[in-house]
Structure formats: C-alpha cells, structure tokens
Amino acid sequence: MITNVLNVLDALEIAAEPNRRRLLHLLAGNERAVSDLSAHFEVSRSAISQHLLLLEKAGLVTARKEGRNRFYRLNPLGMGRLRELVSQFWTNELDLLASDAAAMAEQRGTPQQHPNNQQLQDKDAHEFRQNDPPAGHS
After folding, report:
1. What angle do CA 112, 114, 115 make, to 5 degrees?
2. Residue 41 and residue 123: Cα distance in Å, rounded?
3. Residues 32 and 97 in one domain
4. Which end of the chain has fewer CB atoms within 10 angstroms, the N or the C?
5. Cα(105)–Cα(114) distance, rounded to whole angstroms?
6. Domain that holds residue 104
7. Which long-range contacts (CB under 8 A, 24 or more apart) does 110-117 make?
8. What is the CATH number of the domain that holds 15?
9. What is the pLDDT along the chain (138 residues), one digit of tens a residue?
C-alpha cells in the first residue's frame, strides 16, 4: 500500500517540473513524436527524451515506437489518478485555507468572497482549453 502512495506522490512531483508540465500540455491534444515535442523547447532533444521517460515511468504518458521514431501520448489512467490526487488536495487543504482567510477577513470587517471548488475547476478547464494550440498547429 505504501508503494502505491509513493508512486502517486512521485507522479505529482514529476508532473510539477515546468518542462514536464509543458510536455503534458503539448500532449493533451494528440500523440506527438519526440522531434515535434523537442521543437518547443530550448533544451536538447536528449533532455526532452529523459523528461518523457520519467513521465512514462510515472504512468502519465505512454510511448510507441514506429521505425526510428518514438511517439508519446497521455495515459488517461495515469492522468486520471493525478487529477484525483490534485482534487483531493484542493478539496481538503485549500478549501480550509480559503475558509480561514475568509474568517480572518470577516473579523477585520471586510468579508471577502472566494469561488468554490467547482467554479475554480471550471475556470481552470476553460483556461486550459484556451491555451491548447488549434488542431494541426504546434
């Protein structure tokens, strides 16, 4: 059981690194070759391959080989687990923080409104879709 928890936490840590987060965003639309992905970064193709290998080991992406090319895509199961973890964290910890901040503001006589969890998730999903490149464009 501890191994499973550590794997999920490792996936969160792995996905948090900025280059790997960008790779996940680029893969959100469709499968891509390493050469296509590496064109979006200033680091070497080898470095991108290493990032992709970590994402694959964490279960966040899958790879297939076609000739000399490797193609990557998001792993829906792994991404689902990552989303669940983030959702649990948000629901349990950040809602408490937001409530505490609202209570402190109210004590000062300046009640503040904060969006609920669903409103924030809807906003994040909308922003994520807006940041996706149009199909066929990279």
Report:
1. 155
2. 27
3. no
4. N
5. 11
6. 78-131
7. 117/90, 117/91
8. 1.10.10.10
9. 444 544 544 788 899 999 999 999 999 989 999 999 999 999 999 999 999 999 999 999 999 999 999 999 999 999 999 888 888 777 667 778 888 888 888 888 765 555 555 555 555 555 544 545 554 554
